[in-house]
Design a protein that fits this description.
The chain is mainly α. The protein has 13 helices and two strands. The two termini are 36 Å apart.
């Protein structure tokens, strides 16, 4: 329980520090001329659902499942293959590569701070982390297991996994279930948070945490209208039930539409079939964005400079100077937080088992 107690104590301490520092922050924001922006630090922990509390056994189980390639059809892919927690939480590819070299249609979003998002996937089709966690296992373009029964059969053949599920869900007679797999993975993801960035320290009252250029970029970021979507503690909009979405491109008709293939994917429309949802997307976080190239939902913007230029034109209908773009990029770099140390868990033994593409 030591890890869990440390997480919860740190969360309470950070909340206290934040509450006492906000007067200084308000003055700093007014001094920048951005009085309409509510700059917020990242809380230590995201919202935790009542039916899936964080426990240390469940975090360890989720972490082990996260790294285990044997949960894919041929034993070649894990959750970490596309969402690398040893780096920026994505895979730095325009499109993720699934089983058999199949490519997904969209870029992998970062998994860091994902608990602060109220819906999951670019199109917001999963309402919770638990719902999201189930999809990749049986998706033909991802881990490609033939069925949930095939996955449960594998797990039940590994005694250590069975014991880990029992420790995580002690009140259940047969705890190795799809729902509990999803709950364990979601629990692990909810502790993958990166607080205490230079930006966080600045808005808590440390006026020396940002450079002069980053403060200038922060002001330009607000004045350019970026905070219309990228606001709140996670820079992914005010999270609410049903998600926070925005049309992209909002201003179509520029050369960027074709160059970056902005109109090729209908986004949320593919889920709702509502005409108003064409090219509507869940607003992604900007935290740690300096680490997660390439950018946009399809990975067509290779550099952060390029992405800022595209977004300014397509969302605010303005053209920023190179100096302004550089300043914003430096401000966004200040959103890189402190990453909790990740270590590879020891995998439960698979006795008398093998994994090939011809097996389940």
């Amino acid at each position: 329980m030591k890890m869990l107690r440390t997480l919860l104590w740190t969360s309470l301490a950070a909340a206290s520090v934040t509450a006492h520092a906000m007067n200084g922050v308000d003055g700093a924001v007014k001094g920048m001329g951005s009085t309409n922006v509510n700059w917020q630090p990242l809380p230590e922990m995201p919202p935790i659902p009542a039916d899936n509390p964080v426990t240390e056994p469940k975090v360890l189980l989720g972490k082990t499942l996260w790294f285990d390639k044997r949960l894919s059809k041929d034993g070649s892919l894990s959750c970490n293959s596309c969402h690398n927690v040893m780096a920026g939480g994505d895979d730095n590819r325009p499109n993720s590569i699934g089983l058999g070299d199949k490519h997904t249609d969209r870029s992998s979003p970062t998994i860091w701070n994902v608990g602060y998002q109220s819906v999951q996937f670019w199109d917001g089709r999963a309402k919770t982390l638990e719902e999201q966690a189930k999809e990749p296992f049986i998706s033909p373009a991802q881990m490609a297991m033939s069925s949930w029964d095939a996955l449960l059969e594998r797990l039940n053949k590994m005694p250590t996994y069975v014991e880990m599920f029992k420790a995580s869900f002690p009140n259940e007679e047969n705890p190795v279930t799809p729902d509990n797999i999803a709950k364990a993975l979601a629990t692990y993801q909810r502790v993958l948070n990166t607080p205490n960035s230079a930006y966080d320290r600045y808005v808590k009252g440390d006026m020396m945490a940002l450079t002069e250029q980053q403060v200038r970029g922060m002001k330009t970021f607000a004045e350019a209208g970026c905070t219309t979507c990228h606001n709140g503690a996670n820079f992914s909009g005010q999270q609410k039930e049903g998600g926070f979405f925005m049309k992209f491109p909002l201003f179509s008709g520029s050369d960027y539409d074709k160059k970056y293939k902005l109109l090729d994917d209908y986004g949320r429309y593919d889920i709702t079939k509502n005409e108003q949802d064409k090219h509507v997307w869940r607003v992604p976080t900007l935290r740690n964005i300096a680490l997660t190239a390439p950018y946009l939902h399809n990975g067509t913007a290779i550099t952060l400079f390029e992405a800022i230029k595209v977004m300014a034109k397509t969302q605010s209908n303005i053209e920023l100077t190179n100096d302004q773009i550089t300043d914003i990029a430096m401000f966004l770099d200040s959103l890189t937080g402190e990453f909790p140390v990740q270590t590879m868990p020891r995998m439960p033994a698979a006795l008398g088992m093998t994994f090939t593409s011809k097996k389940k």
